[in-house]
From TrEMBL:
Pfam families: DUF4440. Residues 32-138 form the DUF4440 domain. Coiled coil: none annotated. This is DUF4440 domain-containing protein. The keyword Transcription regulation does not apply. It comes from the Bacteria.
Amino acid sequence: MNKSVRHVGACVLFALAASHPALAQGDKAVDAANATWNKAFNSGNAHALAALYDEKAVVSPGNGKSIQGRAEIEKLFKSFFDAGVHDHTIEVIQARHSGNTMYQTANWTAVAEKDGKKSQYKGVLLSVMIKGADGRWHVTAHTWNAMP
């Protein structure tokens, strides 16, 4: 009997948490930010993609180095597009949203196509976003790993 009461209590707490407006808003905000990011990436427009980052954002592309600022971020993504990288997807593992800050851990995939040969890449990413004065979410920190 005691086990059943705990089970029902846990189910009620889960249902309340799932319907909590701030949590739902966080999920929608992360999903919308990811959709915008993927659209910019998959358009191959490095300038538009870099504009989604905070002016002083830090990015570490999994090579043990980091870059800072939109100009450097734009160069990085331009090099990816020049190498034939496209079809980027993001699948959220976990996301949190609190006030003007949200972060996510997610799986990502992309395809690199060069000389008619396609290679699938995937990995895990961590990104932190802040809501700017313009009301938009801007990535302020972004790191990922990759494996073919």
